[in-house]
Amino acid sequence: MPRFYSLSQDPQVSCSRPGTNCRRLVEIAVTVHETPHWRNGPRTGLGSGHLERVAQQLLAAEAAGTDAAHLDLRVPIFRGLMANPLAREFVSDGPMLLVGAGVGVAPFRGFVQRRLKSANCANKVWVLQGVRDSLLDELYSGEWGVHEEQVKKVVQSRRGEGRYVQEEVRLQADLVWFVINALDGRVFVCGSGKGMGEGVERALVDVAMCKGNLNQEEAEAFWRNKKEAGQYIAVRIFSSVYACAGEGGAD
């Protein structure tokens, strides 16, 4: 069974790696979870574990001064099995809020890079990124393009004030309400269905109740209507098997 991963870079500008004659790069983010094996050893996910082993061979070769090209490392990829929701739904120049945690921010990076190059999209895209500790697991720090500090807000759950990204959504209620009610405004959430994803959904309902003066039932209906209209999109990931479905490929 294929494993789906999103590209984490803009494929239109991913051929600048020196010495590759402009061959396309495929960049993805993968979380590797280890669980006890029935033989009392560690066990990883089928797809994520394979990618980890390939990466370890590459790093070992580089540390030994060996040309990795001689290792003949290969990862089978099937292109275009699923369309990236960012590319499919967010084709307008309207304001956009992207909320993700862990590898859930991977699909956002390349898309933000491209939007920041457009004058029509200036000051119209914001990212709320949830991490445990920014010193240990903040993905792509410094790689989001110009004015990153104005575009991206990193929320740490194990360091500093100790907040989860859904709590930051409530603190950013004015921004959330502005984006979702603006012309062609979009809110995109990528995270675990049993954790961050459901927490963000509850936070969005709270925002609608506060800013829209709605009761809970009305607030829930508000976000259902936005989802049906394509203005609110939530993509859920499950453990290490699936990352947000995207244009990358499957191993």
Main beta-sheet annotation? 5 strands, parallel
Rg of Cα set: 19 Å
Low-confidence stretches: 238-251
- DSSP strand content: 15-25%
How are the SSEs placed, and which strands pair?
Blueprint lengths: L3 E2 L29 E2 L5 E2 L2 H18 L21 H5 L6 E6 L4 H11 L8 E7 L2 H4 L10 H4 E5 L8 H7 L1 H9 L4 E7 L3 H16 L4 H13 L3 E6 L11 E2 L1
Parallel strand pairs: 4-5, 4-7, 5-6, 7-8
Antiparallel strand pairs: 1-9, 2-3
Helix pairs in contact: 6-8, 7-8, 8-9
Describe the structure.
Strand 2 and strand 3 form a beta hairpin. The chain is globular. The model is unreliable at 238-251 (pLDDT under 50). The strands form 3 sheets. Strands 6-5-4-7-8 form a 5-stranded parallel sheet, with helices on both faces. A two-stranded antiparallel ribbon has the order 1-9. The protein has a two-stranded antiparallel sheet with strand order 2-3. The chain has 251 residues and is an alpha/beta fold. 35% of the residues lie in helices and 16% in strands.
